[in-house]
Amino acid sequence: MQRKKTCCAKGNANDMFKTLKSDLQAVLKRDPAAKSIWEIMLCYPGFRAVRMHRRANFFYRHNRHLLARMTSEWCRFTTGIDIHPGATIGERLFIDHGVGVVIGETAVIGDDVTIFQGATLGGTGKDTGKRHPTVGDHVTISAGAKVLGPVTVGSHAKIGAGAVVLKDVPPFSTVVGVPGHVVRLYGCKVPCERVGMCDDGNCECSETDDCVRRKEGLTGEAGVDLDQTDLPDPVEQQLEQLKQRLDALEALLNDKNRA
Q1: pLDDT in tens, 167-214
Q2: Where are the beta strands (DSSP E) in 62-217?
Q3: Number of domains observed in the structure of the chain
C-alpha cells in the first residue's frame, strides 16, 4: 500500500493550516469529552503528539535527523507517546489518551485512523528494511493492541483490545486474541459460509446496520467506526461449538440405545 507523504512535505502554509483544522475536527467528532478547540490544543496529548510528529517528520525527510529525533524525544517526554520521526502518518489521526503508544520508523498509517492507549505499531526484531506495519484508512486499534512486523492492516479493520497481530489483516474485519485472528469479516461472524456475499443479497446482515459493507467507499469521519463492544469472544465460540458437538453425540447415543 503506497501512501502519500504527510502534509508538511508541501511546505504550504494553507495546507498546514488545513491539516491542523482537520486534526482538531477529528478529535471533536470522535471524543464526546472534547468541549472546545482550545481544550484540545492545550490539554490533549494525542493531538499534540500528532502535531509534533508532523514537524519531526519534516526534519527527518530533509536529512535533519538529529533535530527530528530531538523533537520526537521531546514529544515522548511531554506526552508519553513515542512516534519515530520516520513514520508516515495520514490525515486526521486521533490518538485517544495515548500514554504508551509506540509507532515505529517504517510504519505507515492511513487517513482517519484511531489509536487508543498502550497500542504498538512495532517490529519483531528479525526484519530489515520495512520492519513495521502498514495501516489502511478508517482503522481502529484498541487499547493495548500490538501490531508487529511488516504486516498490512486493511481499511475499515478493527483490532480488539490486547490483541497481538502478526499476520496481514483483511479489510472490513475484526481481530481479537493472542495471537490475533479474524472473528468478524464484513460484519459476519467467522466462520460463515456467506461472508462477502453482501452484494448478492445472500448474507443475512446485508439489509441491516450490522453490514459493514455499507461503509465501503465512505470518506472522512463518515467511515470511522469506534464500536469496541461488539467483539465476539473466541473462547466462548469454541465452547459453544464443543457444546453443540456433545449435544449431537449424546443424541446419537440415545438413538442407538433406543434402537
Answers
A1: 999 988 889 888 888 888 776 666 665 555 555 555 556 555 555 555
A2: 82-83, 88-89, 94-96, 102-103, 108-109, 114-116, 120-122, 134-135, 140-141, 146-148, 152-153, 158-159, 164-165, 173-176, 181-185, 188-189
A3: 2
